[in-house]
Specification:
The chain has 507 residues and is an alpha/beta fold. Helix content is 36%, strand content 21%. It is built from 14 helices and 23 strands. The strands form 7 sheets. Strands 14-15-16-13-12-18-19 form a 7-stranded mixed sheet, sandwiched between helices. Strands 9-8-7-10-11 form a 5-stranded parallel sheet, sandwiched between helices. Strands 5-6-23 form a 3-stranded antiparallel sheet, with no helix packed on it. α9 links the parallel β12 and β13. The longest helix is centred in the first third of the chain and has 21 residues. This is aldehyde dehydrogenase (NAD(+)). InterPro entries: Ald_DH/histidinol_DH, Ald_DH_C, Ald_DH_CS_GLU, Ald_DH_N, Aldehyde_DH_dom, ALDH7A1-like. Belongs to the aldehyde dehydrogenase family. Homotetramer.
């Protein structure tokens, strides 16, 4: 086993608790293997149903104290968490890279997102604004205020094992909620490391045990969260299939869900594009995190007059991509998360060949001393058809489909012609094209960019998508409202009791 973080992340004795999360009363364990070299990183205890119930009960108790702490004070505690993440940025970013397989620069960038959302939450702690409004009745005042929901369940995915959790947790905490985190079973150690880091902050501030909780496991734990009436909101990031199950379970009990699901993102390149800007954005969007981002560029829609030029430029750029150990800073692309993902990549390639697809950049699974885990694949580019079933689905791998168009409306129809609606982009220096793309007749996605790619998001903006992407919004803007309940208040400060709508009721 490898030790990357100088933190006490080894499991303690079953049945005990440490800091702000419970360990488990069972000897069942989950082994975390690195896709980088296939080595065992750590063995983590799995939560039983008894463990889970104990965690949620404790979280409920903690909520009654945490919600009474003034929001600016909660913000200051989160600021201290951000300071701890700054202190451990290199170690935690390295662990993210090693356990998940993304490049070291991306691992460090993910930790920076956590730091940024802590800063955002600090500012938000003094901006949880309501509204005042005029009453139709004399001597009355009306206003709205926002209160925390209670227990928030966070189900996170392997591709961003810590950043997306922090988008949810930091905002939920500053709003006065408590959190129960179910990390991906493919990346449990990064979650344990984050818990260790923030637990010290919570203890130093005498925060009640249960404000931050962690439960480990697979689908069964997610089902417990989604079916549990004690959990007011379930925020789930993952596949559309998983999201449908979570949404159905939560809706059945009339709970709240926030869903961030699949993406099938496209970039439109018009004949007015600056290709020196477009090509790097396309390549990073398509191969970053080995194609395992929800915002990965999966489709490239190119105006027919520049189609051949763009293809040639892409082939030249892909030839410069360095694939290998993501802990080496010169490497662009690391491994897929596991051999199951490699099998999905190979199945997609086989289906493309059956459909008669022509590869601009050839696919392949890499082998040899540098690729001992068996999880390394070649990013590929294929001339495809938007109507193909394989193009309509999200394959979590670095496969880019290129297709041509004639008119901009045709390009927008192709882009919107998939079940998903997360991220989209257009490259053009033509103002009319850009504005049309952003108009009501343009992109139907939750994110629409001009002259930047589909991949990546700033924490200041609300993140999320439409259609099968789930409709949720996380992180910035007014996404905080999803973690709170709205209350309308009316105060009668007069001596009369006029009723609404002029109704009279004499007794």
């Amino acid at each position: 086993m490898h030790s990357i973080l100088p933190l006490p992340v080894q499991p303690v004795k079953p049945g005990t608790s440490t800091g702000q999360h419970f360990w488990h009363s069972t000897e069942r364990t989950l082994d975390s293997y690195s896709p980088v070299d296939g080595q065992l990183i750590a063995r983590v205890y799995l939560s039983t149903r008894a463990d889970y119930d104990k965690v949620v009960d404790t979280a409920q108790e903690a909520f009654h104290q945490w919600r009474l702490l003034p929001a600016p004070k909660r913000g200051d505690i989160i600021r201290q968490m951000g300071d701890q993440f700054r202190q451990y940025k290199r170690e935690l970013g390295t662990l993210v890279s090693y356990e998940m397989g993304k490049s070291l620069q991306e691992g460090l960038g993910e930790v920076q997102e956590m730091i940024d959302i802590c800063d955002f939450a600090l500012g938000l702690s003094r901006q949880l604004y309501g509204l005042t409004m005029h009453s139709e009745r004399p001597g009355h005042r009306m206003y709205e205020q926002w209160h925390p929901l209670g227990v928030v369940g966070v189900i996170s995915a392997f591709n961003f094992p810590v950043a997306v959790w922090s988008w949810n947790a930091m905002i939920a905490w500053v709003c006065g909620n408590v959190c129960v985190w179910k990390p991906s079973e493919k990346t449990p150690l990064t979650a344990l490391a984050c818990q260790q880091i923030i637990s010290e902050v919570l203890r130093n501030n005498d925060v009640p045990e249960g404000v931050s909780c962690l439960v480990t496991g697979a689908r069964d734990v997610g089902e417990w969260l989604s079916r549990d009436p004690r959990v007011a909101l379930v925020s789930a990031t993952g596949s559309t299939r998983m999201g449908r199950a979570v949404a159905a379970n939560v809706a059945e009990r009339l709970g709240r869900s926030l869903l961030e699901l699949g993406g099938n993102n496209a970039i439109i390149v018009t004949e007015h594009a600056d290709l020196d800007l477009a090509i790097p954005a396309i390549v990073f969007g398509a191969v970053g995190t080995a194609g395992q981002r929800c915002t990965t560029t999966r489709r490239l829609i190119v105006q027919e007059n520049i189609y051949e030029d763009v293809k040639n430029r892409l082939a030249k750029a892909y030839a410069q991509i360095r694939i290998g150990n993501p802990l080496e800073e010169s490497i662009h692309v690391g491994p897929l998360i596991d051999k199951q993902a490699v099998a999905g990549y190979k199945a997609a390639v086989d289906e493309i060949r059956r459909m008669g697809g022509t590869f601009v950049v050839e696919p392949g699974v890499l082998s040899g001393d540098a690729y001992t885990s068996g999880c390394y694949v070649k990013p590929c580019v294929v001339e495809g058809d938007n109507a193909w079933d394989i193009v309509q689905r999200e394959t979590f791998a670095p496969i880019l489909y290129v297709m041509k168009y004639s008119t901009l409306d045709e390009a927008i129809a192709i882009q919107n012609g998939v079940p998903q609606g997360l991220s989209s982009a257009i490259f053009t220096l033509n103002l009319r094209e850009a504005e049309h793309f952003l108009s009501v007749a343009g992109s139907d996605c939750g994110i629409a960019n001009v002259n930047i790619g589909t991949s990546g998001a700033e924490i200041g903006g609300a993140f999320g998508g439409e259609k099968e992407t789930g409709g949720g919004r996380e992180s910035g803007s007014d996404a905080w409202r999803a973690y709170m309940r709205r209350q309308t208040n009316t105060i009668n400060y007069g001596t009369q009791l006029p009723l609404a709508q002029g109704i009279t009721f004499d007794l």
